Amino acid sequence: MSDRDIDQEFVERAQRGDKRAFELLVSKYQRKLSRLLARLIRDPSELDDVTQEAFIKAYRALPSFRGDSAFYTWLYRIGINTAKNHLVAAGRRAPSVADIALDDGEATEEGSQLRDINTPESVLMSKEIANTVNDAMAALPEDLRTAIQLREIEGLSYEEIANVMNCPIGTVRSRIFRAREAIAERLRPLLDTGANRRW
Amino acid sequence: MEENLSALVDGELDTGAGRRLMRRMGADEDLSRCWAEYHLIGDALRGMAEASFELPRFRAALEREPTVFSPLSSRIAASMPARRVLSAVAAGVAIALVGWMAWPMVQDGPLQRLTGAGSPVQAAAVVPSARGVEDYLLAHQRFSASFAMQGAAPYVRLVDDTAKAKQ
Questions:
Q1: A166 or B113: whose pLDDT is higher?
Q2: What is the tens place of the pLDDT at every residue in A54-77?
Q3: How many interface pairs between A and B have CB atoms less than 8 angstroms apart?
Q4: Which residues of chain B neighbour A193 with C-beta distances below 8 Å?
């Protein structure tokens, strides 16, 4: 089941009234969209509101989504329009399309540099999450660390990872799962989402 | 189950198992939590660890939104021609049913009584000599179930009997 098929399945469930399915899409894309909109919205407190507004607008527009494009492509357009409208309403100049890189993956560092106004709480939280993940990665056995790096950073498929690591695909799947669980175990206290708590 | 979820996150789970798992995720808080955590881990490894988005606040905002319903999802829309045929057949069946139910009313209704075989003159001709029965019927026709429906017909019947009596 490809990434696009997964998104389409969630979209169709949401279109049939399942709000929880839409929440799962938000969980998946919130940081990616937020990162994109940070190129337009410099104030982190505004960024949070604009990102949420974009997702709400996407939810309202779900009946018009037919799957002709990927869900994130469609969400991307809504996000950009929402941010531009926000800037116009605030009396600020909305950047032209040329100002915004269409490949949002190419400027992650630039995006963070645009934020010249930072709220300490959000910066602290981001750093804590990043440090926790890095510490957890360093503590992983080498085979688990290699597997999850090849998957999450290099973007290789399970089959490709199996070829690189010279092991069966099932082993790759198991290693990546165990790596994620080990990292999540360290993250949970930080996220306040332990077994007895809810999102 | 979480290992399947990990594979789903990577797009490496087969369609059947993926759909079954996605159905469960809607009702299972632990699965939903793992889904969010696994995506956070991936984003953090890719340098996108910003936690500026509060999911509980968004969930509250989403709850306030009217629930969208769009039955014509892309998968259903793809089968539209078949649905159109079924809709046309259903409409035809409905029309036929209404017509079948209404047919007896056309057969035995007031229109037939005023213009067809049930005319008072012919009834009188079929029973010419039962004078007592005719008197009884004339006296009690106002209690007949068809009295209100026939309008002038009772008076026509009365005139005919009177004319025969004079003969």
A1: A166
A2: 999 999 999 999 888 999 999 999
A3: 195
A4: 33, 36-37
Whether residue A162 is found in the same domain as residue A110? no
Domain count, chain A: 2
Residues of B in contact with A5 (CB under 8 A): 11, 15, 18
Q: Residue A74 is part of a domain; what is its CATH number?
A: 1.10.1740.10
Kindly determine whether residue A17 and residue B38, on different chains, have CB atoms separated by under 8 Å.
Answer: no
Do B45 and A152 contact (CB within 8 A), yes or no?
yes
pLDDT at A99 over 90: no
Domain that holds residue A140: 119-199
Tokens of A22: 């839409």
Picking from A78, A97, A118, the residue at the C-terminal end of a domain is: A118
Instruction: List the 6-45 stretch of B: residues with Cβ below 8 A of A.
Output: 6-8, 10-15, 18-19, 22, 25-27, 29-30, 32-45
**Chain B, nearest residue to A64 by Cα:** B70
0.80 cut: is pTM over it? no
Q: Which residue of B has its CA nearest to A187?
A: B37
Structure-block tokens of residue A58: 């996407």
- Same-domain pairing of A147 and A77: no
- Put simply, the answer to whether A26 touches B58 (Cβ < 8 Å) is yes
Query: Cβ(A5)–Cβ(B15) under 8 Å?
Result: yes
Separation between Cα atoms, residue B111 and residue B153, nearest integer Å: 12
Tokens of B121: 């003159």
Helix axes A158-165, A142-152, angle to 10 degrees: 140
Residue A150: which CATH number? Answer: 1.10.10.10
Of the residues A118, A135, A167, the one at which a domain ends: A118
